[in-house]
């Protein structure tokens, strides 16, 4: 029996136009599309009319399918001779568990390809007018998951590192994360921003300082998905490069 192929494809951060040409081409021909909750839904209109569409979306604390079940689905459909496209928000190898799915394919002898996507880690700040690096201001950036595993983050080192810090999936843990950074010695007046539903028509950005950004997020009822940016580059947003805010209609981006 012919074994199907698996394509782990990054859909980008929200704006459907940010998927790669290769990703879109594969999406249009796949037999099965297993997609995440935060992919741009307009992309589902690009699938083959006879494609099987499977929603594998995960919300915080509410998983439609476990990762083990998703892995099993991928393998089952591929062993049945069907080409499977796993459509993930952002990039499949940046906090997307794409590595786990690739390893499962390898273990089961399923041929697979990875199609990188535009990661929300840098695209969402860009849509908010915040460059992660800027000459004379920041020459490096660090990305971490807000789904912190106890003891997995060295906050003392992080506070001393300098540059820009990007926190993904960190709304719930933001008070805890900012408190630990303050305790580790990061200046309390470090510029901060939280971007909700970035790169979509629902995008909303609030700014503040390390010492008060968690309170500001709570007061403004910020909800996932949201990304936090810490560092001097946040100031540039108010210096004229918050380009999305200048569009006649925010809906123009998605």
Describe this structure in words.
The protein has 254 residues and is of the alpha/beta class. The chain folds into two domains: 6-115, Cobalt-precorrin-4 Transmethylase, domain 1 (3-Layer(aba) Sandwich); 120-253, Tetrapyrrole methylase, C-terminal domain (Methyltransferase, Cobalt-precorrin-4 Transmethylase, Domain 2, 2-Layer Sandwich). 25% of the residues lie in helices and 21% in strands. The chain is built from seven helices and twelve strands. It has helices at 21-29, 67-79, 98-107, 120-127, 155-161, 174-183, 213-219, and strands at 6-10, 32-35, 52-55, 58-59, 62-63, 84-88, 112-115, 141-145, 164-168, 191-196, 204-209, 226-230. The strands form three sheets. Strands 3-2-6-1-7 form a five-stranded parallel sheet, with helices on both faces. Strands 8-9-12-10-11 form a five-stranded mixed sheet, with helices on both faces. Strands 4-5 form a two-stranded antiparallel ribbon. A hairpin with a 2-residue loop joins strand 4 (58-59) and strand 5. Helix 5 packs across helix 6 (174-183). It is elongated. The mean pLDDT is 93.
